[in-house]
Design goal:
Elements: H1 2-18, H2 22-37, E1 40-41, E2 52-53, H3 55-69, H4 74-81, H5 87-106, H6 115-135, H7 139-164
Antiparallel strand pairs: 1-2
Helix pairs in contact: 1-2, 2-3, 3-4, 4-5, 5-6
Length: 172
């Protein structure tokens, strides 16, 4: 599920940087997709701790950022190149560019910052984001989410039966 969300965010970055050029956006997505396939290293789901991006993956993603996301993301790309930069700060930089774009788009015509204008800018940002997500082919993501939630519900029902009615235990 996290991977699907990251694909969606990457698409948002590529769309913003390509300024509506579908060919450039597709090339950007392909570059990042290839970079991600270089993999992660370390302990995964079964083990404890987070997986770290392999040096090859970091290098490839930095190259993609440099080739496809500049000039809008120049500061963020520079942070990615800096091996001493905090990864969370680098991620925030990329997200800040997206949010800043939404604020600029949604505050067009706003001359004064008031609670009402802030609220309208935030509502606009939510709507723009919802519309972006609706346009994406997320049926696969929705299906996986639904399956995941149904499995969780089944487990909860089974646990509830085991705890409340010990004589009717369901074996799993």
């Amino acid at each position: 599920m996290k991977g699907q969300v990251m694909k969606l965010i990457t698409k948002a970055h590529c769309n913003l940087a390509s300024e509506g050029d579908e060919t450039k956006s597709t090339e950007c997505l392909q570059c990042f997709s290839a970079a991600v396939k270089l993999g992660k290293q370390g302990k995964g789901k079964g083990g404890r701790g987070k997986k770290e991006m392999s040096p090859e993956m970091v290098s490839a993603m930095t190259s993609c950022s440099e080739q496809h996301l500049n000039p809008k993301y120049t500061k963020c790309t520079t942070m990615m190149k800096d091996t001493t930069a905090d990864k969370k700060d680098t991620h925030k930089c990329y997200m800040r560019v997206l949010v800043n774009n939404l604020v600029i788009k949604c505050s067009d015509g706003v001359s004064e910052a008031t609670p009402d204008t802030l609220s309208s800018v935030m509502e606009c940002g939510k709507e723009v984001t919802k519309n972006f997500v609706r346009k994406m082919p997320v049926q696969k993501l929705l299906k996986r989410s639904e399956t995941f939630l149904m499995k969780k519900r089944m487990k909860m029902k089974i646990l509830k039966v085991k705890v409340t009615e010990p004589e009717y235990r369901i074996r799993t």
